Description:
Blueprint: E1 2-7, E2 12-17, E3 26-29, H1 31-36, E4 44-47, H2 59-73, E5 89-95, E6 98-103
Parallel strand pairs: 2-4
Antiparallel strand pairs: 1-2, 1-3, 5-6
Amino acid sequence: MATLTYVYAxxxxxxxxxxxxxxxxxYDLCSVHAERLTAPRGWEVVRLQPEFAVPPPSKDDLSxxxxxxxxxxxxxxxxxxxxxxxxxxxxxxxxGHLRVLRAESD
Length: 106
């Protein structure tokens, strides 16, 4: 796994170890895509780490998985359609700003 960031002013793509925190304009890549990465013509790729291996599972991974299972099992409050949506549409799930809608005819 690796994190890709860009330095537009220097026409450089920087590929380094997986970042510990999410940052805007950085992209996490699997080891296959990190190894195959190419940059646009005229750009330089700086690899801060020669090989990008998949890290072994950690306690944080187990905690994140347990939290995801807990969240999926929580009861969701009944949601009424917002203005502009027909009464035949029901919200079935929500994650952040994304919503899953189901038409009553489905």
